[in-house]
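Record type: monomer structure entry
Structure origin: computed from sequence
Chain ID: A
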Amino acid sequence: ERTQKFYSWAMNNHWGTNYRAYQDGPVEFWFALRPHREYDAVAAERLATGMSQPLLPLPAATGAAPGPSLLRLTPDDVLVNPLKPSDDGRAWIIRLYGASGSAREARLHWGDGRSRQVFLSDLSERALRPVKAGVKVPGFGVVTLRVENP
């Protein structure tokens, strides 16, 4: 039956696991409500990412023209989360997430137009196999890429 009540079960200790069935001290939870029509998994993921990883505005040099975007990704329902320098400092690590729930072929478009060597990678950030064109991203799956700096 319809109602204006929201219920949240933020902490569930009813599973038979090997940790205590209680938590000490105060715990803070945040909730975001956003009106929408039908469910859109991509929009929900973008909202959640924006809430948990907000952009940090920093002052820029006065009079400096903005440069091109580092990276654009197609299609729009494959999300980058995260893009970071590799631990060895010689590449970018990009994780692609199939937010729509459907398999997609993603393509990277670099803002400066230069080509780069792109490799499938894993959590160790090693270059495993080269990616020649698009990369297959499973629905609700994650693919890790290593992009060598030009």
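Annotation 1: Helices lie at 41-52.
Annotation 2: The chain has one helix and eight strands.
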